[in-house]
Amino acid sequence: MRTALPQMPQSVERTLGPEATGDLSQWFEIVLVEYAVRRYEYRQVLSRLDILEHDVADVKDRITDLHRTMDERFDRMNERFDHLNERFDQMYERMTTMTRWTVGTLALLGTIMTILMAIAQFVP
User: Which of 57, 60, 111, 121 has the fewest CB atoms within 10 Å, counting from its CB?
Assistant: First the structure.
C-alpha cells in the first residue's frame, strides 16, 4: 500500500534546482520507507505498550507486596535473634559468676587444708 509522495514545493525547486530537488525527493522517499512507521502500526504499538504498562504495574505491585512480606518476616526473625542474644548474655553472666564462686571456694578450701596441715605438723 504505497502512496506516491506529494510534489515538492515550487519554492524548493526554484531554490535548489531540478536536480537537487529530485535527489532530495529520492532521499526523503528512502528515509520514509526505511524509518517511518505508518499511523495504524503506531497505534498498534501504542495499544500494546499500554497493555504492557498495565501488566508491569501489576508486577510492580506484587513485588512491592513481596518486599513488604519479606521485611516483616526478617523483622520477626531479628526480634527472635535479639531475644536469643539476651538469653545467651544472661547465661554467660551466670557461668562467669559460677566460675568465680567455684574458684573462690577451691582457693578457700585449699587455704583451710594448708592451715590444717601446718597445724598437724607442729602438733606433737
Answer: 121
